[in-house]
## 1
Amino acid sequence: MKTWLRQHRQAIAAAFGKLAAQKSAAALNALVIGIALSLPAGGYALLSSLRNVTLGAALEPRLSVFLRAEIRRPEADALGARLKADARVSDARFVSREQALKELQAIEGLAEVVGALSRNPLPDAFVLRPKAADSAALEALAAQLRAMPGVAHVQVDSAWARRLGALAGTARLAIALLAALLAFGLVAITFNTIRLQVLTQRAEIEISKLIGATDAFIRRPFFYLGALQGLAGGLVALAILGASLAALNIGVSELASSYGSSFRLGFLESGDALAVVLFSAALGWFGAFLSVSKYLLEIEPKYGSCEDNPWGT
Amino acid sequence: MISFSGVVKRYPGGQEGLKGVSFTIEAGEFAFVAGHSGAGKSTLLKLIPAIERPSSGAVLVNGQHVGALKRAALPYLRRNLGLVFQDQKLLYDRSVYDNVLLPLAFSELSGREAARRARAALEKVGLLAREKANPIQLSGGEQQRLAIARAVVNRPSVLIADEPTANLDAGSAAAILEIFADFNKVGVTVLVATHDEALIGRFARRVLRLAKGSLVE
């Protein structure tokens, strides 16, 4: 165990040594990886910000049942009991006209408008969560609700939210595809960088193999080098993302404030930022693994050429 | 102990490097592998650490069927063998000391013990005073002695050298052979390939003579 730890320590030190010896090349590599990774990371951050905006909107179907103004509370309660008992409804929440006004006031930009009203124009309402999600079933339920006594208006709320959800889903898929494509690019970059390193150390590798070094021992410093390059690239990606969001937020905040909103594009959450860095390091490690393994196979004598080798190894 | 039994080495294209070679070198023995260029000396030596594998026949090293070893087992076989190459295979981007330290980097030894062993090996070949030099600054004989120090630093039971005196003058060549003889005195099995008949004559040891891939003596 002590030997294993010592060898890992030496491999890490060797990897840092190689990075230090080629500072400008290492910095350029980190920059290339960082730029490549910042694109999907930025897309993800953008989607997260938009999701936070639309979080208030239910992506599952909802029906708002507005009651007539003359309906009193006991009648509303009786109607609520009927709605809750309906097998097609999974939940029915009563929203009083007072509560609805408060919620309206809480929406940015509407506080002044609501404050200017002389009386509360909003009706009592029920917000229903139907069990069915297809539009035919929703319309049939809405039609029956409209016919109920005391009901003034029924509104199916979910269509726009579902469209937004579908759009967000498509954007997420596009970002995932972009991330996969760029991950492949990152592996290729690391593969080539490590290949160059391997070639510069060809003599040492070949001699080490001849005098008893295992493939694992030879690979180890290159693995760390690949992982460190990926790690540096991930950190550069976060820096690029942070700087880009800060620049974009100048315009976004101006636009948002004109709508009375304090909306800003948010940076990745700490877990997501850590995932970007670790993912980048893992891809660097993988690129190094492919590169060194390929080289070690190339320099291995081709024993198979001896067709009658009795051990066939 | 090294044992070859009916060993044939056939290269792609059908050319035979070795043709049914059989012999046994006992533990602690010192033997020369002699023959002209192309006789199969290097091929024979390469079969021992499995740098090449036999096409047929058996190569046994310390009881291990070398040809049957999996790729992953080869490093452990090679750590028990000291290999001295004709072209030395030294690393010119590091010091004499670091060259000798190389085989100990993947050993179980602590850093302190590895340093002690490396210096002891350098002292044995008379290069301790030049431990900080770059191998490029050494003469041909010194470079060969450095290659020997690297080969013995792991304290192998078998020392194999391929034409270790090929590019040396007679005095340096004899000095190199004396070093091998010293290691043999402490029980190391030594196998040296050379085409230098004068040198072989000077050291009265067993000779495995190869001609066109066959053992003739």
## 2
Amino acid sequence: MLEIKNLHAELEDDGKKILKGVDLTLEAGKVHAIMGPNGSGKSTLSYVLSGRAGYEVTEGTAQLDGADILDMEAEERAAAGLFLAFQYPVEIPGVGNMTFLRTAVNSQRKARGEDEMSAADFLKVVRAKAKTLKIDADMLKRPVNVGFSGGEKKRNEILQMAMLEPKMCILDETDSGLDVDAMKLVSEGVNALRDEGRSFLVITHYQRLLDHIKPDVVHIMAEGRIIKTGGPELALEVENNGYADLLAEYA
Amino acid sequence: MAVAEQKNAQLAVTAPVSGGWSLKAREDALTRLNAAGLPGRRDEYWKYTRPDALTQAQAPEGKFVSYEETPVFSEVDRLKIVFVDGVFDADQSDDLSLEGVTIERLAGVADKDIHWAQGLYGVLEANGQTPVSRPLATANTVAATDGILLNVTGKVSKPVSMIYLYESNNSDAMLHHVVKLAEDTEITILENGPAAARFNTVMEVDVGDRASFHHMRTQGRQHVRHAVTHMFARLGEESQFRSFTMTVNGTLTRNEAVIEINGDNTLAHIAGVVAGDGATDQGFHHDDTIFITHDAVNGESRQVFKKVLRNGATGVFQGKILVKADAQKTDGYQISQGLLLDDDSNFLAKPELEIYADDVICSHGSTCGAIDDAALFYLRSRGVPLAEAQDLLVLAFLAEAIDEVADEAIRDLLTVRLESWLARRRA
């Protein structure tokens, strides 16, 4: 599904090197988690993969089902099936959440040469999906993320994911700012989307999220590289012992 | 016949020889105009807008282009009054009769000895000359060739729609409208069209107690045209005044509004949306100059102006809220914002508050910026292509001002026009 090879990236502004050779292969239908200390490059990896400006890839490749996504615009990556659930979802005053969702869905359909979804069909689908995420009609009407609580914003991210049906989902610290109940709700939303044809890359600081979204593989990232890969037990190890041992081992 | 004496002997206006009931007002206006002189660049309120094209003797030549487009309010059930290059066109206009209002033409009743509009024609304009003089409005009072006089006596069932068509590249039009709303009455006035190569209009509006005045206007879509419009309004007790203007294109447009809140518990909302592209023909310059005076208790005023500018377009906002000492419990709000789509465009804002009462709420804000990169990336990351994402954010920016239009159907009509403007400019 996703194959990252020797990915190097730096900040465009000051040339600071953030990713220093990331290798990662994610098979279809699998959930991989990336954990790591602050500043290890986890979020940067998600931004570089999704095409945010401000980063320059200096070496390496990233392929989604064989297509080189690093050459694509952000919207092309999205149409190719990549989705990033933001750590800090952006507020867009003046754009209704519903308009936003419909524009996104239909833009992707158009880019893939599919028919656009009719307003009526769209409404039916979005209402059903919103309901399972406990997103009420009011939240759908309001401007995108404006005045949403932290939990509402994250639920809204998952709603977008459910509507867009991407094949490769990257969750960037989706657990940050969530209380226990909200985390459960969001995780259920994610789990409902787990599918043979869909993969997840879950970036998190805490093992707790992984109790809800059970990963197949756990990677530890430090200093811009994946330094260790293992099963779910690796997350527990981090939870119990912190990163110090792993970092020492790597050094 | 007299001629305004000007340093550079530019715009010379004359009062008609036989003006009937309006003659006195026209002659008085000429005296005032001679005293004030035409605006020049040194004038405080013409610092950001060059008045030359408006004050020169000859109208700058226009460049009429025919667009295959349905005029904006066509779908609205309305009474049509059509002017072509500033000249009334009876054939294209509806019969000037409508329940709740008497409709007359200024030119049509010029020879009458006395007329209800006598107490208003040039009167509200003259009141609006202090503390800031507006000589181009005075010139209009002197020399307006036609206009519509609306005597509103009830709730008018459908909008009165003034349509200004523009055909001649040398047209130089001056229209003067007077609207008088009796107590407890209501009217909606629509205006649309580019009017003339050069257009100078005055609308004087006297809103009686508990009356409601609604005004919606679009100024487009011809590029090469110059216009200065003036609205002078006086508001009685518990009355409502709402005015909205959308401008796309135009070499130079200056929209002035002078609103005086005279009665208690009154509401005055004025809003504007501007989309300007400086790359087209002779550029784009748009100026909103608003002056609201609170002279009564518990008045609410609101100014919402948004401008999206590209390719060296210039937007100007000069907005004032003056709260007199006795105007306690005033609630005044003003926001002016420019969205610059490139580094060449300009937004120049001069918000002013002058408050003499001590128990008021007044707030104002003015911002100027580019499209938010974070929002743009967010949209693109969801698959929305760059151009579409930009347009969506531009419309979102303009939404606060468009939302000032209460009528949802008209709001949608206006939004469609803006969408087309944006779509025409996609790379």
